[in-house]
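ugh ok fine here u go
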Amino acid sequence: MNILKSLWIFVLIGFLAGCAPMTTDTSFKAVDLSGKLGTGYKQKVDNALIILDASSSMYDRENCNQKIVEAKNVVLNMNDTLPPLKMKAGLHVFGPSLGANMEDSNLIYGMSDYVAEDLAAAVKSVDVSGMTPLAKPLLKSVDDLKDSKGQIAVIVISDGMDTYNQSPVEAAEALKNAYGDRVCIYTVLVGDSPVGQKVMEDIAAAGKCGFATTAAAVSTSQGMADFVEQVFFEKEAVKPVAPPPVAEKTITMDLKVLFDFDKDTIRPRAEDELDEFAAFMKQHPKTTAVLEGHTDNYGSEAYNEGLSLRRADSVKKYIVGKFAIDPARLTTKGYGYSRPVATNKTSEGRQQNRRVVAVISVTIKE
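structure:
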């Protein structure tokens, strides 16, 4: 292992020789997304864990391009684009040292309350070195997130190359199994390796609710703004607008038909009131009515009960015959002289008691 480590150090020094060091991107102008919160969008992430590849494969000797700088710029630009969200954040780096363990993987920031300045300082401290055990930080993330509450976004930034002897996809599946629907995995590919692209896409797919993108896609201000919006925000559910209250009113139609002594025939002067009552029933086809027949107290109880019912039936026959009202909508009852409305000691009182009455009420929208 010591021979392998010494050889790796020698090769890395050869990679770096002859190339001017790259610096962070100072031309990036972050889009201000703070206005989106509360205006149709809400925060959906309570914990953000960034996994940053700082291994030796992140140095591209052929193009004299340190991919680690591009990867760090992704995190720094995302950090600048993020509004001050209330969440926990962490930075997990793998391959960060030339120490005894070339497969190192450590949480160097967090999990703690998100502070943009602290995250930026942690990112800037990272240097390229070591192997690429991409599975290790994914597995270690299970422990990194053990105290987390709420929804989790795991963002992996790597070239997906030289992933050593463990499957990072299986590690991503283990992370998903540990936190279920709470966690979504997002990957950002640095470089253009087809092999690395496939690895990063498969890692994102293992999360089932994240997605894979590239450093090139998020290098622009709008590209990064779109990425941050998709990872950290979600549209608020549109509250249904309650329809304005509909004013209603109840219409009541009274019927009172008077009869001659010992008669059950309709008097001509009662026809106008009967016609109005029937027209109301015609206009409101769901209404029904109970026709109640009554008498004065002349004669026996049994006779008057029969007479009162015949009077109610007479009114029903008139309404059904003239206006074709469904007979089932009209019920008749005879009460005899049991329910007087006036005294039976006078002719005027007895006339008021010889009657058929009905009441219909219907509620309509104004």
